[in-house]
Input
Amino acid sequence: MPGTVLLLAASPVGKGCLVDAASVLPVLAAVAPPVLSGTDTANVVELADPLEPQAVLTRLRAAATAPGPLTMFVTGQLQLDRRQRLPHLALARTTPATVRYTAFPWHWVAEELRLRPAGSTTVFIDLHADADTWEFLAGRPLTVGPATALYGRVAPPPPRRTVAQPAYMKAVAILLRSGHRPPLLQLHQQALTRTTGEEAARPGAADLVFEPRQSWAGQPWPPAPGFTTVTSLPRTPPPPPVPPTVPSAPPVILPGRSAQPVSSPPSDPHEEITAAVRDGRHDEALALAGRREREALRAYGYGSEQVLHWMEVRADLAMFAGDPERSCRGWLAVAGTRLDAGQAPDAPEVESAVDRAHHQWGRIGDPARARELGAELARLRLRVPGRREGALDHVRQQLRQLQTQN
Output
């Protein structure tokens, strides 16, 4: 069955342009359609700097309803609708004041892809975000729906008066132009490796990097970790059987008193934390997560998944707050707790925690603190080498460099 490929590159015309999105299309167009799609034959649809959201929607809807695998390559910039606070893909006529009317709502992508069979759809993205959208994404990662595999990155705003290049998507295209289509995760990681120099030379925050079921933030090496999804609850033991209900007597209302209203159920702490992060109230978010961790410790005990969940949330919140040292300490603690609880060094949760600690350690600016935590990380890497070759060597090499710094 033939596949379908949708190439979409969009960015505003004029001074509002953050990225030269259309520059990637000639490189992608040079790739054979079967290589782009991973099928014997493929139909390729190209959209270069479209003007109208409805035009994009029409092409997307046609691609989404086509039989066979669908692969999308989306390059451009994200801007936030000031009224609804929703991210949009900026089109040629988009300005900050007209996002709602001239840009393509990102959630339309998930809506159009939601009925496709699981495993049949892949989306590669290379997007740059303006300042408002970048702050928004810190508390609400970009999604394309649960049945769609998402690979790529969202980069922070480039320096003023600078137009960025879609380096990640160009790397994907160059790798595919060889005629070989590696497994998608491998293709994604190879493309990230090729953009390492670009990110290192650019001031400011690291890219948000995406893989299926994970939203990642950081550099290709060390491996960028997946965020804890703070909107998902940890698994809890099943509740005890509920005894048969006995009809209760009607409430007695004393003279001069009114019946007390029934209290509303407590709000979801994950929603409160996400809202606090979105508003920049990082200390409040950390305090909320810390309180929940203490409650879980009293209820379920040390090493329980409920406690570990809140430890992971706190480590991610420290990252959101721009505190890599605290985040690194948090992930080291998570890994140590899991190992102390008897989990194997190659368990995915243990490896993930160490990888995340490794990533955050690489962002610590204080050499003394970095040396201290690096020694602990090196000891942990001896037990948990991880799945990417050379992790321990990388820690040791960085520690040697840190020894020369004051």
